[in-house]
Amino acid sequence: MNIELIILAAIAVFVISRLYAVLGQKTGHEQQPARRFNKEATVRAPEREDEAPADEERPRVRPAFTGPAAAGLESIAAADPDFSPDDFTKGARRAYELIVNAYADGDRDALKQLVDDDVFEVYSQALADREKAGSEPMRLVRLRSARIVEASVDASKMGRVAVSFESELSDGDTMRNAKEIWTFKRALKSQDPNWLLDEVATAS
Fold first, then answer.
1. Distance CA 159, CA 148 (A)
2. Residue 74 and residue 79: Cα distance in Å, rounded?
3. Which CATH class is domain 70-202?
4. Separation between Cα atoms, residue 153 and residue 185, nearest integer Å
5. Phi, psi values for residue 189, rounded to 5°
6. Which of 116, 126, 118, 201 is nearest to 165 (CA)?
7. Which residues pair with 145 in a beta bridge?
8. Do residues 169 and 134 make contact, with C-beta atoms less than 8 angstroms apart?
9. Where are the domains of the chain?
10. In which region does residue 106 sit, left (phi positive, over 0), alpha (psi from -120 to 50) or beta (all else)?
11. Helix 117-133 and helix 85-105: axis angle, to 10°?
12. pLDDT at 26 over 80
């Protein structure tokens, strides 16, 4: 065998063995493979038990009543949480129109459903006098305003609300302005939601 081939073969074996010694072993400085981002593994902060869901409806706080009848209205609302001065005023306006029209038409049955016994007795007598005299009734032309001026609750939980009305009435020949204070009453513990006319007074 050629001595040169033997020498070259020995050199090759030596070089390969050194390369394996360097490249074939872990040194601790190798780069670790990149980890995939897993959004499911994202740590979420635990929800606090005392925190309500954002979309949960919070209880609404009713604003305080204002005006001269505020204290009485608060007392009524305390006994009847569904009471609303705005809704009451709308109902009072409607009641005024119904009562004035029923009185003009002489409709005693309709009046009896809307007023208490004392007021009904007064209206019935006035109707009898008008019918005897043959005079024309005053009819409602326009209800100009309605506003609550007083409210109260007595020991028996009877609520009363006084409403000042201003209207225009006519008998066909003459027109007059009417200014009256009507007081409505209702037993606040009753299941009947209707208020009855309890008193009528001329406003100053």
1. 13
2. 9
3. alpha beta
4. 10
5. -90, -5
6. 201
7. 166
8. no
9. 70-202
10. left
11. 30
12. no
**Two tokens, residue 7:** 């020498």
Tokens encoding 162: 């006084």
Average pLDDT, the chain: 83
Residue 8 tokens read as 């070259």
Specify the residue for token string 């007795």.
121
* Beta-bridge partner residues of 107: none
How many angstroms separate the CA atoms of 18 and 12, rounded?
10
**Any idea what DSSP says for residue 37?**
P
- Structure tokens that stand for 114 in this block: 């809307």
Residues in Cβ contact with 168 at an 8 Å cutoff, skipping those fewer than 6 apart: 140, 141, 142, 144, 175, 176, 177, 178
Helical H runs in 24-84? 70-79
pLDDT (tens digit per residue) in 46-103: 555 555 555 556 656 677 888 889 999 999 999 999 999 999 999 999 999 999 999 9
